[in-house]
Amino acid sequence: MSPRKAKTRSPARNCPTGVALLHDPTLNKGTAFTEEERDALGLRGLLPPRVFTMEQQMARVLENYRRKPTDLEKYIYLVGLQDRNATLFYRAVVDHLEEMMPIIYTPTVGQACQQYGHILRRPRGLYISIKDRGRVAQLLRNWPVDDVRVIVVTDGERILGLGDLGAYGMGIPVGKLSLYTACAGIHPSQCLPITLDTGTNNDALLQDPLYIGLLQHRVRGEEYDDLVEEFVQAVQERFPNCLLQFEDFANINAFRLLKQYRERICTFDDDIQGTAAVALAGLYSAIRLTGGRLSDQKVLFLGAGEAGIGIGDLIVSAMADEGMPKQEARERCWFVDSTGLVVKSRTDLAEHKRPFAHEHAFLADFQAAVEAIRPTAIIGVSGKPGTFTRPVIEGLARFNARPIIFALSNPTSKSECTAEEAYTWTNGCAIFASGSPFNPVTVHGQTYVPGQANNAYIFPGVGLGVVAAKARHVTDEMFFASAKALAGEVSASDLAQGRIYPPLSRIREVSAVIAAAVADVAYKRGLALAPQPPDLLASIRSEMYEPCYRPYV
């Protein structure tokens, strides 16, 4: 008598089978494939016989993840999981975001980028080099997915506060797009990380035997610009509904590329605009603790690059929204760069700094500027650790009952001061935020929860709103709206703990609210190509990707 055959149904159309299915991270469920699926999809014998639930798989993931001895080892483990089973990876990150976001993004991603060629398991995304000029469109056609909605592209020249990491900078687009999915529910198949490799001026990398990029110094000028232009045109042709996010370009290119392309395509620069929105949201929350209005503030920046000038520009727009003339608003923002105070008498100022050059005697150091300008808030975007010294912070506290201290440089090793220093040196009076996470601090029996002014609060929600509305452009008004929406999600109980941003555990909900605010701007300004739904927020929530296994038969 012949053995009875298992009853099966046909697999979903176009679904790969057998080993090909197990090797596709977007479709693979590993040991969670059901008995019926194993029969229908040619998996019988290719998997251990026991069927596991996602919850049981998650227990294995957490056990292995938590036994890793270092954060870098945890990063490597999670990237490996993402390469094997993307759904399980995103389920783990979404359910344990506060624990895992510092691993897949700042601060650990900085260390991962520094060692990217040494920890490389499987290439992710696309690498387009200066040697590919004339065939960039062909390279984009090599990408197997047609419906790409978000591209994050870097040239690796200014990775976080770590400088030129060349092709090793690919870890940033990969990490950013993981957050687009985990924090805002954009489907992982619709995300594409890209590195433009035009060389590196980091000689240590050029001597690194495992460096994965071109072994040459950076290309500048017309040749560089031609590659970027060819790339932008190819993206428009291959992925016409795509949002293109510029990430971690050096100052010499970031400002001009944003200016060149923002009116032509759907694009933004997160270092300039995303950082600005998250900082402005923090200021709005801080004012709820200090009283007054934004236009009452005087802000002194340490650092006058992309992040600092971007924040300054958005603060000016927000003050103007309160009725203050723009020039007067600019005079509420002061900058100290690597040379000293940015003032009109200086002849060495780059174009992007000149709107914030005011009449004042030149001062060579930040502490002197604090004493002379007497700001209500200091914002560090310098990448220079320890520059918010005790004399600086104690000086700020002498003329502010609640001094606002934002030490935003990433990763943690580059922070201008620690949370403990800010709270301790002000006897617990500081309103503090940092770019990378710090643990709660107890001063005089009171525990303070530091705010993390991470761009992850902004860019995923902005991207989700742009994608939902099919916006033709990304405007400053959208970032202004996103800052107000983020600040509006900070509760009274958050403020009571000193927290000026909502908990990361709420970030998907917060991203949906930000997306609705951004999409609303797109509809009001005639920039949306998608029809407007009757309930924008409900529509956005319904479209967000939820990492769950789907049946195949």
Overview of this structure, please?
- Helices cover 44% and strands 9% of the residues.
- The protein has 24 helices and 13 strands.
- Among the domains are: 18-102, Up-down Bundle (Hemocyanin, N-terminal domain), CATH 1.20.1370; 115-265, Malic enzyme, N-terminal domain (Rossmann fold, 3-Layer(aba) Sandwich).
- The chain is α/β, with parallel strands linked by helices and 553 residues long.
- Helix 5 crosses helix 6 (97-104) and helix 5 (86-95) crosses helix 10 (171-184).
- A six-stranded parallel beta sheet has the order 7-6-8-9-10-13, with helices on both faces.
Index terms:
553 residues; alpha/beta; Hemocyanin, N-terminal domain; Rossmann fold; six-stranded parallel sheet; 24 helices; disordered N terminus
Summarize the structure.
Helix 10 links the parallel strand 2 (150-154) and strand 3. The chain is built from 24 helices and 13 strands.
Largest sheet: 6 strands, parallel
Low-confidence stretches: 1-10
Q: If helices are DSSP runs of H or I spanning 4 or more residues, what is the number of helices?
A: 24
CATH topology of the domain at 115-265, by name, is Rossmann fold
Query: What's the rounded overall pLDDT mean?
Result: 95
Strand content: 5-15%
